[in-house]
Design goal:
Length: 417
């Protein structure tokens, strides 16, 4: 049983939303955030990337940077750039990419659900990244950016989503840069609010799609606050964290591809010969070739594309991890042939999200920066949920969700007094 609740969202007035809204903190570096914010003092980057208010080179982890996040968050509220709703609402958030729209319900998830595994994860988190976001939650006393969750299905939620999607949204804009559409509705009808709460109570689990560090940080800070208030009822805002929950069937996962600097001492001919032990290797010519099914890979080497198909017996189809293409390629190509043991730390490998296209893989090889590129067929939500249900963890650099949630449309305050 999943526990959720509505909340009094802190939001920009309609006429300011495009000035406030930003990309998530973790998809761009400090200088990119500085450039995107420009002279816009209302940009959320001043709260989620506050190092942009300091001289270039200032560490994003400096104490004064976190202090500035708190100061700017208070300023946004004082200036009326963020205004809190009078009543507790749910919200509907729609994203449109390449003609496809996905609808998520913005809500507060329950910290104990995260701690008890009802909210399921599929990635490992790094303690240093957790602590960074924990410090940010502590100083702002808020979940400034949401976690991206998925649920399997619900006819009740589908009906409510269709009802609000047919009305005029509160926000409706095209984000600069990527050109993706964003729409946002306020769900303030008492009966609909109760129906949403009840519908989630009949769902047995939620799945973290994106935002593992944000969810860990939000839950850990919530647990800290609960421990500091032994007389708490369990319904205080700090017992909840903000998330956007999408039906799993609507979500788009793009390929997450690899480029490698060298062939571990082999010639291209030797490398292709070595590959043929575990893969059917078929040359595809000079035109970009994209994998069309699971267990097929595209290799770009020496100006030619190749289709690689994993041979029978090279993976266990009943093993939710071992049957993943990211695991097959890591074991049989990156590790066994190229000597790349740790995808997180090895400097010989880099990763390219599918939104950039296979043309970027070709360009990085043709430029001489990299010697080979490997394109993978995207992981499916069914695979992710299967792994999460089994209690296992996905290999690193396995999933790339698009579009990313836009930050700044709504914020959840952890008021406790």
């Amino acid at each position: 049983m999943v526990v959720v609740k509505p909340f009094k969202g802190l939001r920009p007035p309609k006429q300011l939303v495009e000035q406030v809204a930003s990309r998530p903190y973790d998809v761009l570096d400090s200088e990119e955030a500085r450039a995107e914010a420009g002279d816009n003092e209302k940009s959320l980057y001043h709260i989620i990337k506050p190092e942009i208010d300091f001289p270039v080179g200032t560490s994003e982890y400096a104490p004064e940077v976190y202090a500035r996040a708190k100061e700017n968050f208070e300023k946004f509220q004082q200036q009326g750039w963020l205004v809190q709703d009078k009543q507790e609402n749910y919200y509907l958030y729609a994203q449109e990419m390449n003609g496809k729209t996905q609808y998520g319900i913005v809500l507060c998830s329950y910290v104990p659900d995260y701690m008890n595994g009802i909210i399921k994860k599929h990635e490992l988190t790094r303690r240093d990244k957790e602590e960074d976001r924990m410090r940010h939650v502590r100083v702002t006393n808020a979940n400034v950016e949401p976690v991206f969750l998925a649920y399997k299905e619900s006819d009740v939620l589908d009906r409510i989503i269709r009802k609000y999607a047919a009305t005029t949204p509160e926000y409706d804009f095209i984000a600069p840069g990527d050109g993706f559409g964003h729409k946002f509705w306020v769900i303030d009808d008492t009966a609909d609010i109760q129906a949403i709460t009840d519908a989630f109570a009949h769902i047995d689990a939620l799945y973290i799609a994106d935002g593992h560090h944000r969810s860990a940080a939000a839950a850990l800070v919530g647990a800290e606050k609960a421990a500091a208030h032994p007389g708490a009822t369990g319904r205080e805002e700090f017992n909840f964290f903000m998330a956007v929950c999408f039906p799993a069937a609507q979500l788009t996962i793009l390929d997450y591809n690899r480029v490698v600097k060298d062939l571990n001492g082999m010639t291209p001919e030797q490398f292709l010969e070595a590959l043929s032990r575990n893969f059917e290797v078929v040359p595809k010519g000079k035109e970009i070739y994209k994998p069309s099914r699971l267990h097929e890979f595209s290799l770009y080497l020496g100006g030619t594309w190749y289709a690689l198909t994993a041979k029978s017996g090279t993976y266990n189809p009943d093993d939710p991890i071992g049957a993943l293409d990211v695991d097959i390629s890591s074991r049989l190509i990156l590790d066994e042939l190229l000597g790349i043991k740790d995808l997180r730390t090895d400097k010989r490998i880099d990763f390219v999200g599918g939104l950039r296209g296979l043309g970027e893989l070709k360009q990085r090889v043709d430029s001489g920066e990299m010697q080979m590129a490997l394109a993978l067929y995207p992981v499916t939500m069914a695979q992710i949920m299967n792994i999460a249900d089994s209690g296992k963890i996905m290999p690193p650099k396995a999933t790339w969700f698009e579009p990313k949630l836009r930050s700044g449309l709504v914020i959840h305050k952890l008021d406790e007094d």
